[in-house]
Amino acid sequence: MTSSTITTGSAPNLRDYDVILVNSSAGKDSQTALDVVAKIARRAGVEDRVVVVHAALGVVEWEGTLELAREQAEHYGFRFEVVGRPQGDLLQHVEERGMWPSSAARYCTSDHKRGQVRKLMTQLTAEQRTAGITDRPVRILNVMGFRAEESPARAKRIAYEFDKNASNGKRHVDQWLPIHGWTTPMVWSNIKASGVRYHAAYDLGMTRLSCRFCVLASKEDLICSARANPELARTYADLELRIGHRFTHKLSMAEIIAEAEAA
Q1: Domain ranges in the chain?
Q2: For 162-195, how does the pLDDT look when each residue is reduced to its tens digit (9 = 90+)?
Q3: Is this model's pTM higher than 0.90 or not?
Q4: Architecture of the 14-176 domain
Q5: Euclidean distance between CA atoms 45 and 47, whole angstroms
Q6: What b-and-e string marks burial along 172-188, b requiring 16 or more CB atoms within 10 Å of the CB?
């Protein structure tokens, strides 16, 4: 297994990979990344190698998210897979741990998304080996919709690199961020040109489509979501009281609800 990317250079040649795995939250960025991959895969004649995966988070997701992720994948004719933490959804996990996720403890990402997607990688690797790839590691290109504009941490990401942690003796995984350098207007322009449906939460004023209440979301998004999802907000507030841990260091869910109701 090489420690460099399969394709030499700053971007992958999709023909070099056995599986092109596109992570989809059904949000605007993953939707755009999927469209970009679809166009390149079509030109390269490797559309049959594309698999779209959605990490289902249960009640914390915006209503219709899973269905939209499936719809977006099917628009391009791609195989669609759903993964999820078998031990329970995110709210159950929060109660078990007695604390909310944070920027320093992002178990929501590691346990409910990345870890579950790697289980799918194991399955896809086994499929490829059964199909005849036994003389070398299966080559997987893991595609994410991260953009530099989103945060300082994401700005530091390398757009195309070897993923050592996801790779092993049976598979070589490279990660690709095809829209890393795109701006938000570029994303929306691409979505409108594609004709593919986007999530209605954006029309309510949300800037991102992650969990309905993400600990890393802006205050404005949290208040907007609390107005749209008052019942779930109260569920979060009740859980916050039960475990004795604030939703974020700066904002409790009770404060978010109060601001939503006052606006």
Answers
A1: 14-176, 212-262
A2: 999 999 999 999 999 999 999 999 999 999 999 9
A3: yes
A4: 3-Layer(aba) Sandwich (3.40)
A5: 6
A6: bbbbbbbbbebeeeebe
